[in-house]
Amino acid sequence: MNRPLTVCAIQLGSLEGETIEDALNVVTSNVAEAVEAGAKLVVLPEIWTPGYFAFDSYADASQHAGRIRDHLASLASTHDIHLHGGSFVEEEDGNHYNTSVLFDPDGDPIGQYRKIHLFGYGSREPEVLAPGDSPTVVDTVIGRLGMVVCYDLRYPELFRHMVDHGAEMVLVASAWPHPRLDAWSTLNRARAIESQAYLIAANGVGPTRSGPSLCGHSVIVDPWGIPVAQAGDDPALVMARIDLDAPSESRRRFRQLADRQLVSPSAPRLSFRRPGERPLTMEVDRVAVAGYTGRDTEAVEKYVKKLAEEGIKPPESIPMVFAVGADRVVSHDVIDVTGEETCGEVEFVLLVTEEGVHVTVGSDHTDRALEQDSISLSKQVVPKVVANEAWRMEEIAGHWDQLILTARVGTDGRAYQETGVDFFLKPADILEFVEAEPGTVVFCGTVSSLQGGFDFDSVFNGRLHDPVLDRSIEFTYRAQPLEAK
Hints:
alpha+beta, Nitrilase/N-carbamoyl-D-aminoacid amidohydrolase, 32 strands, elongated
C-alpha cells in the first residue's frame, strides 16, 4: 500500500430510551475500542441518540446538540483521529436538521453536512426536520471526503456532485431498516463503483422501540465496488486497512470518469416536490411574466399610476405579458444581481406541463433602477425564483380564491406583502391571454408592498398558503450583488 489508513465503521445497536449520558458512554467505549485496534478514521451511524425513529423526541434531543459536538470533538482530539460523528438532531433558526460533523485529530470541526434527502416512506422525518441545502466535500490530510446520510444513497447525482468536487472517499451515516437489506448492499456498492471512491458506511442494527429493526451490515467498499469489510446482524466494529491512493489509481487504470459524456436536456429543467406522489420534472420552454393582472381594474389603474409617479412607464396594455429567457427561472437559495436596487415580489406561479397545470409560489425579482428605463430589460437581467414544491391545480381549484400570498424580507422576517389570490384574474383567464402551452412557466402578478414602496433588503421569503387543506409552499433566498463577490 502506498498510503495505508485503518478505518472503522461502528455498527451500534439501538440506544433509544437511553439517557444522553449512557449514549455518550456507549459511543466513547466503541471509539476507544476502534482506536485500540488501530483505527485513524472512525464513522458512527445516523441519529444514534435518541434513535432515528424516535421522532417525538427530536425536539428535546436537539437541546443536546452542543454537548454531542463537544464530546465528539474531545474524542477526536484525545485519540488523535478523524471522527465522523454519525448524525444528530440540531436546531437552527427554528428548524431541526439531521446534522453530521467531521472532526480532525485536533478536535476541530472541519466539515458539516445536513441531510438533503428526507425519507418519508413510513417515516416522519419530513414532518419534523428541514432538509439541508448543499453537498459537502472536505479537504483533509487523508484526502477529500464527502459526507452523506442514509436515504442520500438513492441519489447518484449527489455522489456525482461530490466526485466532481474531488471526493475520493464518502462517509455514510445510516439507520437503514429491514426489509431493504438488498437495496442497502446494492446501493453502497453501486455508489462506490460509479464514483470510483471508497465508501465507509456505518449503519445501526437490531430492533428499535419506535420503528422497524435496522438491518446492520455496515460495510467498507473499495473504489472497484468490492466490500473489503462487512458486519452482520449484531453490533460490531467494521475495520479495514485501505490505501488512500486507490481511488486515483483506479481512476487512472479504468478511465470511467474521464470517459463520461454529459447529456444535457434540450431545455432548462426544474424539479418540484408534490405531496403524496413522485416529484414533477419540467423542461422549461417559455417563461411569461404576466403583469397588471388584478380583477379590479380600478385598483390596477391606481397601481399603474403609482408606478408612474416612481418614474416607471405605464404598460402598453392591461394585462401585459413580459417574456424572459427560459433559463431565468431557478430555485436557488442565492441569486446574483447587479446593483443594490433589486427586490423580489411574491406571485403565484402556474406550471403548464404534460401532466396538467400545477401551481407554486415564486418571486419576480426585478432591477428597480433599470425598470425606470425598460421594464422588459429589468425583468430579463435578474433570475426569477420559484419554490421547489408544487400542487396540482385540481386539488385546489374548488377553493382557489381562499389561497393567500405573503412575503417577508430581511433576517428578521418583516412583513412586506400580503394578498388573497382572489385579487388576481383566475388562473384559466391568465393562461388564456398568455397562450400558455406545455413547458410554460407563468408568473401571475403581484401587489404593492404593505408599506408602499420597495424594500431592497437582500433576504426575501415568499409563501402560498392554503387554509382549507392547511398547507403552505414557502421559499427563501438571498440576492447577492456581483460587486460584493
